[in-house]
Every structure is written in C-alpha cells, then in structure tokens.
Amino acid sequence: MVGGDLAGVHAVGIALHNIVSGIARMQQIFRDRSQGDVLTAEAAGARCLFAPGSVLRQPTDTATSDAGNLTPETLVLLKLQDANAHAPSGDIAFLRESWSRCPAEQWVPALLEGVWRRACRRPEGDGSASAPTCPFPAPEPSR
Ligand code: HEM
To answer: Hey, which of 57, 97, 99, 102 would you mutate to test ligand 1's pocket, going by the most ligand atoms within 8 Å of its Cβ?
Structure first.
C-alpha cells in the first residue's frame, strides 16, 4: 500500500487511527454546545490529540527502574496514551523531548486546529448570533 515506505507504514498503521480518534472526539465536543462555543482551536486540538497506545524500547545496558531490573533482553512498553490521557500534552504524544520525536508534531496539531476552525466558521455575511450548524456527519445509531 505504501511501497515499503516506513513513514507510510507508521502513518497508516498508527497515526491515522489516532487522527480518526481525535476527529471523533472533536465531533463529540462540537455537539456539546457549552464547550463548542467557548473552546479555542488550540484548546480543542489539544483535547483531541491521541498518542500511540504504546511504544517499544529495549535497554542497551543493564539498569534499575521502579518496575524492576532492566537488561538488554528486556522489552519495555511505554504506555504513551495512558500518560497523555493523564496529562494531555503534545510533548508526550509526540515524544517531543526525545530522540525519536514525531516529524509530524506540528502538522498534526495544525490539522486538528484547522478542522475545528472550519467547523466553527459561520457562513460569510451571516451576522446571526446563532451557533454554527454542525458540519460533522450524524453519529451511527448504536446497535
Ligand atoms: C495523532 C497523530 C500522531 C501522533 C500522536 C504521533 C506520534 C509519534 C510518536 C510518539 C513517535 C515516536 C515513536 C517511537 O519512539 O517509537 C512517532 C514517530 C514517527 N511519526 Fe508520528 N505521530 C502522529 C502522526 C504522524 C503522521 C501523520 C506522520 C506522517 C505522515 C508521522 C510520521 C512519523 C514518523 C516517520 C516517525 C518515525 C520517526 C523516526 O523514527 O525517526 N506521524 N510519531
């Protein structure tokens, strides 16, 4: 599908799901008028950021940690979305302070913020004080 492009594999396998989850949450927030009317694009984008569920690490040497002793044979799962949900931040979601930070760490928030701005935009020349109509498709009926 992506011709062996590893960035493409990440984008399709992980990133896309996280963006879809973010848009689904945005839809919910938008439908809640009390929040939909007051949230800035930056705040809405931050609330709709989903990190990869977990990322893998393998120690290069022995070390100790709160979770126990680590060796080069240890596989470490960093539960990134749990950490992000606890303290939402692009720094965590994109591992901004780490050597492996996501190259899309500015593009993704800009996308989410742009979607929110567009959703909240009133039609040109519409001086009405009413809230914008919801541009998101209606949710699927639950089965
Ligand atoms: C919600 C959206 C996204 C989140 C939360 C996210 C998060 C992350 C994280 C945490 C990593 C580091 C993984 C690790 O250390 O094992 C990463 C790596 C990466 N991301 Fe994203 N990402 C997102 C969207 C995207 C998109 C849209 C693209 C490209 C189209 C992308 C391209 C990459 C690439 C190429 C890497 C590997 C970088 C490297 O190893 O040097 N990401 N991403």
So the answer is: 102
